[in-house]
């Protein structure tokens, strides 16, 4: 396990966090280009809105997700989409995991 | 996104080892696949039971007819009731899976459904035209309704799914169309039975592949 922990230094630090990995993996299950509403993502991840926003901001800064705010009648609606850069980062992360775990 | 007051907890944002990461990635992906799946395996398996009941019921009502007159009312009633239940369940499942989802693939999917419905209507309009032209009962109330709707709609749906690169759905729809093509050689009575057994097998196979897909590991090749 020590070797595995040492190897974890090679992982993308933006994705290699439990919550952010769950966010990226959830968005990656959608077809490319499709967006998920903030509220549905929050339901699926099970975080408070504030906590989710913090992690989304980190992912957005890395260019892995983009969010869009629209108005649905009087209520604002935020949608989140995994960018192609984010999808590529998850693929690279998965490959690193495979290599490290010798799968 | 104005709320920034909640600090991430160690559990939410802390580091973790690669094995935990692999397990979490698999678990999250599998859960997301199940959540976004508009046709869950149980619904697909139910479709298998429905086609067996609907087409099989019609076959029971027409077997031994000389000359062929067409399905009896009770069989048509059972078929419509079963199809109605499937449509209702499918609508609820699709709505649940698509809640909060938007984008090009979702729009293409909705457009595909509209095209399929149009193809379905066209098939029945043509059936009326056949009857109007004086085609025999064996064609208008046998061979044609047993095979043509699913042959044509299956091919339309397969083309649409291939356009969206949804290969699983494309394969499923193509298999349905192929069963209908084979059934067309079964004659007005045999076609109903071939459709019942063939479609049941296709749906059971699809349900099994869907279960496998949902539980397939992302990390393990």
Question: How would you characterize this protein structure?
Answer:
The complex is a heterodimer of chains A (103) and B (221). Chain A has helices at 2-7, 18-28, 38-45, 49-61, 84-100, and strands spanning 35-37, 65-72, 75-82. Chain A contains 5 helices and 3 strands; from the N terminus they run ααβααββα. Chain A is elongated. Chain B has 221 residues and is an all-alpha fold. Chain B has one domain (36-215). Chain B is built from 8 helices and 1 strand; from the N terminus they run ααααβαααα. In chain B, α6 runs antiparallel to α7. Classes of the chains: A alpha+beta (103), B mainly alpha (221). Chains A and B meet through α1, α2, β1, α3 and α4 of A and α1, α2, β1 and α5 of B.
CATH topology-level fold name of chain A: Arc Repressor Mutant, subunit A
Please report the first level of CATH classification, the CATH class of chain A: Mainly Alpha
- CATH superfamily annotation of chain A: Winged helix-like DNA-binding domain superfamily/Winged helix DNA-binding domain
Q: State the shape of chain B.
A: elongated
Helix content of chain A: 40-55%
Shape of chain A: elongated
C-alpha termini separation of chain B: 38 Å
Overall average residue pLDDT of chain B: 90
Strand order of the largest sheet of chain A: 1-3-2
Class derived from helix and strand content of chain A: alpha+beta
Q: Helix- and strand-based class of chain B?
A: mainly alpha
Q: Please give the largest β-sheet of chain A.
A: 3 strands, antiparallel
Query: What integer value in Å does the Rg of chain A equal?
Result: 15 Å
Largest sheet of chain B: none
Largest interface: A-B, 50 and 42 residues
Number of domains of chain A: 1
Estimated share of beta-strand residues of chain B? under 5%
Number of domains of chain B: 1
Point out poorly predicted stretches of chain A: 1-5
